[in-house]
Amino acid sequence: MADVLFIRPSYDTITSTLHQWADDVVSALQGSGAHNCRELSGARATRVNTDTQLQQPTDCVVFYGHGDNGHLFSQHGPAALDQANDHRLARKLVYVVACDSAQSLGQDAVSKGAKAYIGYNDLFGIVWGGPETWFRRAANACILWMIAPPPNVVPSCAAAVNFAKSTYDHAIHYYSRGGGVGHYNHALAAAWLRWNRDSLVRIGDGNALL
Fold this sequence. Notes:
- This protein is of the alpha/beta class.
- The chain is built from six helices and nine strands.
- A six-stranded mixed β-sheet has the order 2-1-3-7-8-9, with helices on both faces. The chain has a three-stranded antiparallel β-sheet with strand order 4-5-6, with no helix packed on it.
- α1 runs parallel beside α4 (132-147) and α4 (132-147) packs antiparallel against α5 (157-176).
- The longest helix is centred in the N-terminal third of the chain and has 20 residues, at 13-32.
């Protein structure tokens, strides 16, 4: 059983959208019967609360929100996580849906003992409207696969990233050569899905488990 800390601020269009996507993951965790989920949601997603929660037993940290190469931004005030407090991620698996954070923050966290850091090393794009369903599915695929893996499969984070990239591949195919061709914004959707797929990386131990 894993103790999961889920941080998801909600203060603008993008974070509100990601907050909704995260409902799928929180529901899966709560319904799994195999994991405990603690949330810092909306106004509770602050630096102080993050530091406090990370002093409790925690196996995995999940963040959905805004980021840059050195920060994961809180609801307000100082960043929820940056290189001044990422030592608190030691011995933890980290999954992040945010721009850029795998560039520097992920590398730094792993150098300080995080088991693995899964996130995006460039911008994370969303195309709203019909394509949003595919963006949501692909962004959630990695962590949902680790929560409920197929039978007789070791749910390592390396395998989970491969599954997420295959989910992106299906979405890209739909909007570039499948049934999504001709839909409004189909070319833009395919381009951003491809961008997100290529920006998704795993740093650290590929064998790490939830």
